[in-house]
Amino acid sequence: MTPLRSLPAGRSARIAVLDDYMGVAHRLAGWNRLAGRAEVSFLTAPLPVGGEARALAGFDAICLLRERSAMPGDLLRALPDLGAIVATGRANRTLDHRAAADLGIAVMTTTGSGNGIYATVELAWGLILALMRHIPQEAAAMRQGLWQTRLGQALHGRTLGLIGLGKLGGRMATVARAFGMEVLAWSPNLTPERAADAGAQYATKAELLARSDIVSLHLVLGPTTRGVMDAAALAQMRPDAVLINTARGPLVDEAALIAALRSGRLRAAGIDVYDTEPLPPGHPLRSLPNALLTPHLGYSVRETFETFYRETVENLESWLDGAPIRLARPEES
Known about the structure:
Blueprint: E1 13-17, E2 38-42, H1 52-56, E3 61-64, H2 73-77, E4 84-87, H3 97-103, E5 106-109, H4 115-132, H5 135-143, E6 159-163, H6 167-178, E7 182-186, H7 192-197, E8 201-202, H8 205-211, E9 214-217, H9 231-236, E10 242-245, H10 254-263, E11 268-271, E12 291-293, H11 302-320
Parallel strand pairs: 1-2, 1-3, 3-4, 4-5, 6-7, 6-9, 7-8, 9-10, 10-11, 11-12
Helix pairs in contact: 4-6
């Protein structure tokens, strides 16, 4: 096993906290505990595409917020000073753990998203309610002096189709039943028995898409799920249905979704995740009136971030003490 890289000698460690888009990390944990031992920089903008190595040159440790910034092997090999990475959450699929281990970079994790699981489900329901009752449009109309411009739809008696019935999908089913909805579920490995245990009715993918008023995605992104909602799947949805994606952008064929929304083949979509994040300013999704967009807010709540950053500081302290804790295994990629 490659020994861990040495701590910087004769100077304070230089630490970068990446992708702090909202500029909140500095006040959510006791960073002052590192005073005198480290200089901490909070980076509020994404790393420049193609210039990641230049932006991170000279840092001894970097702190990642989930998978916002990818850390492939080529980038890690271009950072000879890097001795530690703190990755929030239990797993990070965009970090090359094997390359980090081979280079002697300590990779530390934090506990899971905690309230992030609940928060993502809450956001999904926020998108559903906003689309079904036209809340953004009606709120904007009120500011213009208007009154009751669109007729919404109730959730009671309608059908929710869940593509994915794990922890998040299961919570979605619980809330749907409270609203008085019928719940259908499908995933590549779901069985009728497991669906019933979660309070849903198993359906084939085609049946779910054809029957559901709302289709909500809750799958892990992988080779078998990438593009699970392609042009053919979108065409199977009812024209008056809505699609919700708070899971991962590439689960949906983005070009096919844009085409379906533009043509009116699909009534609306509520989207929190994208193929490219942050979503570029001129992206066509931003101009579609029937696309309700949020900037990957799913797990982004105070309770989750406080846990992430508190444990990040603990991990950094342990690394500076020469005994890093919560070390990830190289196979956790």
